[in-house]
């Protein structure tokens, strides 16, 4: 008799445990954000990369990758945010770029009970770290861990292949009127360092310094790197008049895809691989 009672009690406990687990799972699912808005293109890419693109109800302007993002409602995120329009979509999560979106408007959203996830990547490895953090918030930690692992593997492979390569004096021409370049933590500067391109303005104090043409002529770059939409090579007419530059005499111009290079997404390593390969070709050419 006692054993029957014990078995019955164990059976009831098992049922209670199963019910509790189901309830916990339901609560967790309810807590997982289902209506998400992104306020910067790189976060739009991250959400799709993590397999949660179907939860996006709106994205920032210029969210053009992947293609599915182009079919979503978009917000102008330069200047003031349209807080009323964002609230009308009833998001349960807004993904923002700290320093790139108006802080006062984000605070207003928080006052209305909207959860804000802040992204602030500075170094290349921050892309992997923040992807994992966002994945946890979205309830897809496995996808975040996988994407972070893939990113770090590619990054380390590039380091191993090119870190001992002979450096090439390189100038990144971000713009010619005025003459702008990159240094320090600017994404192109980090990619150049990864590929053993010796940035001739690595000593600049800011990330995007304006420089004088005389400085470029004095520092004699052997390669000039540029970026444009879809990697369409911009006109080299500006540089052709300066035949004293080794890069011009050897026609050593490299053009990268600006959308890959300037966005804090894993696609930045696509631009890095292209730059590394082309620099290596110039090294081998001598």
TrEMBL record:
Listed Pfam families: Peripla_BP_2 (PF01497)
Protein keywords: Signal
Signal sequence extent: 1-31
Coiled-coil zones: none
Record domain Fe/B12 periplasmic-binding: where: 35-283
Top-level taxon in the UniProt lineage: Bacteria
Entries under PANTHER family matching the protein: MOLYBDATE-BINDING PROTEIN MOLA, VITAMIN B12-BINDING PROTEIN
Protein name: Vitamin B12-transporter protein BtuF
Naturally occurring in which organism (per UniProt): Alishewanella agri BL06
């Amino acid at each position: 008799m006692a054993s029957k009672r014990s078995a019955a009690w164990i059976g009831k406990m098992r049922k209670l445990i199963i019910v509790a687990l189901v309830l916990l799972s339901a609560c967790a699912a309810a807590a997982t954000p289902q209506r998400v808005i992104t306020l910067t293109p790189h976060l739009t890419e991250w959400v799709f990369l993590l397999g949660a693109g179907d939860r996006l109800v709106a994205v920032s302007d210029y969210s053009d990758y992947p293609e599915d993002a182009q079919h979503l409602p978009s917000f102008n995120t330069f200047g003031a945010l349209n807080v009323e329009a964002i609230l009308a979509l009833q998001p349960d999560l807004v993904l923002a770029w700290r320093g790139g979106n108006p802080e006062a408007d984000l605070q207003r959203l928080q006052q209305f009970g909207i959860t804000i996830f802040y992204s602030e990547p500075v170094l290349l490895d921050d892309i992997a770290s923040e992807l994992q953090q966002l994945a946890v918030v979205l309830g897809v930690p496995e996808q975040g861990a996988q994407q972070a692992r893939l990113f770090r593997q590619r990054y380390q492979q590039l380091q191993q292949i090119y870190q001992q390569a002979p450096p090439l004096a390189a100038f990144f021409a971000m713009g010619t009127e005025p003459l702008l370049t990159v240094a320090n933590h600017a994404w192109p500067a980090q990619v150049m360092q990864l590929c053993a391109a010796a940035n001739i303005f690595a000593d600049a104090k800011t990330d995007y310094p304006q420089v004088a043409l005389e400085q470029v002529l004095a520092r004699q770059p052997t390669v000039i790197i540029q970026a444009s939409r879809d990697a369409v090579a911009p006109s080299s007419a500006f540089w052709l008049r300066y035949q004293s530059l080794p890069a011009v005499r050897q026609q050593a111009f490299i053009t990268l895809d600006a959308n890959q290079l300037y966005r804090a997404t894993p696609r930045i390593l696509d631009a890095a691989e292209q730059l590394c390969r082309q620099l290596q070709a110039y090294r081998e050419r001598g």
